[in-house]
Each structure stands twice: as C-alpha cells, then as structure tokens.
Design a protein that fits this description.
This protein has helices at 2-20, 64-68, and strands at residues 23-24, 29-34, 37-42, 49-51, 84-88, 94-98, 101-102, 124-126. The protein has 130 residues and is an alpha+beta fold. The chain has one domain (22-126).
Length: 130
C-alpha cells in the first residue's frame, strides 16, 4: 500500500510539472522544467539564452557569434505576445525576445535539457521564465 501511494504521488508530481509548462507565441517558445526551474526553450525543446552585450530590443550577435549562438528566428508573420517581442536583424529577419532580451540557442547543447551555454564568457545566461 505504501509503495502504491509513493508511486501515485510521483505520478502526480510528474503531471504537475508537465502541467506547469506553457507554450507561448504559437508554440515557438515554451517552458520546460530543468533542475526545478522553468527554462525557456524553443519548439525543438532546446534551451534558450540571453546575451549581456545586447541592448533591450537590439541584438548584437552576428557573424561568428550567431554561428555559435543561433538566434531564435521568428516565422514570417509572427506577432509579439505579452512579454515576447520581435527584434529586427540586419538581414531582414526577426528573432524572439523575452522582456526585451533577444533569445538564442547554443550550438554545444546536444539534447533537450542541456544548459551548457549558461555563463559562457560570463555574458551568456539561461533564459528563465520570470
């Protein structure tokens, strides 16, 4: 009986974690529980990051930077929603931003749940839902 209650509680906890995840901007961005925190991830479930050298609503990551930190490009026709806005890139594309901070992926993350880009150069940070 005790094992059944423990398994039931574990299943409920798993369901509660999954229920807390939210989709934003048409599913292009969502949250994922990673180490007990609600991390912003792309539709591919890969972690999103912010860059300290960006200004609010402006990306400063191009060329080699963008090769290592691919921007979270918005689909044509994407619309800002709540805390999620669009940032213009010099090539005419738009990328997603959260609370004004442009969002990027990290090429060295291999699978969903990886956060190996956190604190790279002390200027890259995992994007958390606030």
């Amino acid at each position: 009986m005790k094992l059944a209650l423990t398994l039931g509680a574990a299943a409920l906890a798993l369901f509660a974690t999954a229920a807390m995840a939210e989709d934003y901007v048409g599913g292009a961005i969502k949250t994922m529980d990673i180490a007990g925190k609600q991390v912003l991830v792309g539709a591919n479930d890969m972690t999103l990051y912010t860059f300290d050298k960006d200004a609010a609503g402006v990306t400063n990551c191009y060329d080699k930077c963008a090769e290592n930190w691919p921007p979270a490009i918005a689909d044509a026709g994407a619309k800002a929603e709540g805390d999620f806005t669009l940032v213009d890139r010099t090539d005419g594309s738009k990328m997603w931003a959260y609370k004004g901070k442009p969002l990027y992926f990290w090429v060295k993350d291999q699978k969903p749940g990886d956060t190996t880009g956190d604190m790279v150069g002390e200027v890259w940070h995992t994007a958390y839902e606030e």
